[in-house]
Design goal:
Blueprint (H helix, E strand, L loop, with lengths): L15 H5 L13 H12 L10 E7 L4 H10 L2 H7 L4 E8 L12 H18 L3 E5 L4 H8 L5 E10 L9 H8 L30
Antiparallel strand pairs: 1-2, 2-4, 3-4
This protein binds flavin mononucleotide.
Length: about 210
């Protein structure tokens, strides 16, 4: 079932999977089936990548099927995130291989490409009635130690995967944030046709987009 909570209102029409994607903190206890997880990570792996390196790796911890991994990922999160993340059914740790396999040189685009893969996964999640919530609030050192991740891999993010639940289940400040309107910068502040804006604060409201 589509999650129609806090759908993003945009200046121009885009795919509903983009406007319906959001980062919930409230989840139902419904487990995420293996097939759904396989589809999510297949979507991640379909992303473009520099030199076709596919630098993304994901460690998955599911309360239902891999509870020890779930607890390890949870344990690496900042306390604020742990308070709500513990209710999610699945956690994933996104990791980037920092060198190219074909020549061993540093891959400066590794984190970029892991981000693209995760964004794909987030959109596929919407299609399956799921949502994810990405987090930077975690200890990379703790996560690396918990899973013995080799030195040439960087830890990029941790994210929840689950079916969104009612905001009422959250404590007060989080409840409000869950339902606060989602907004974005106007297009004129992020898209500059023809060059970098020469006047500070200049808006390209008249640009053809
Ligand atoms: C890389 C990244 C790191 C984030 N870190 C956290 C975090 O540690 N804790 C948290 O509650 N939300 C975190 N967020 C969620 C953002 O706050 C959220 O995506 C943003 O407010 C936009 O909301 P939306 O995803 O619902 O559109 C993070 C998102 C991204 C992409």
């Amino acid at each position: 079932m589509a999650d129609l909570t806090n759908v993003l209102q945009t200046e121009h029409p885009i795919l509903p999977q983009f406007t319906q994607r959001r980062s919930p903190r409230a989840y139902t206890a419904q487990p995420v089936a293996a097939e759904a997880l396989q589809r999510l990570f297949t979507a991640a792996g379909s992303a473009a990548s520099c030199f076709g390196e596919q630098p993304w790796r994901f460690i998955v911890g599911s309360k239902a099927t891999s509870p020890e991994a779930f607890e390890k990922i949870l344990g690496a999160l900042a306390p604020f995130n742990q308070t709500w993340v513990k209710e999610a059914p699945v956690l994933a740790l996104a990791v980037a291989k920092t060198t190219f396999s074909h020549d061993g040189n540093p891959n400066a685009w590794a984190r970029h490409d892991v981000g693209q893969a995760t964004a794909n996964l987030a959109v596929q999640a919407v299609e399956l009635g799921l949502q994810i919530h990405q987090m930077a609030g975690f200890s990379p050192d703790a996560a690396r130690a918990a899973f013995a991740i080799p030195a040439d891999f960087e830890l990029v993010s941790i994210f929840t995967i689950g079916y969104p639940g009612p905001a009422d289940a959250l404590p007060d400040p989080l409840k409000e944030r869950e339902t606060a309107p989602r907004t974005r910068k106007p297009l004129g502040e992020i898209m500059f046709e023809g060059g970098w804006p020469s006047v500070q604060g200049e808006r390209y409201d008249q640009a053809k987009v």
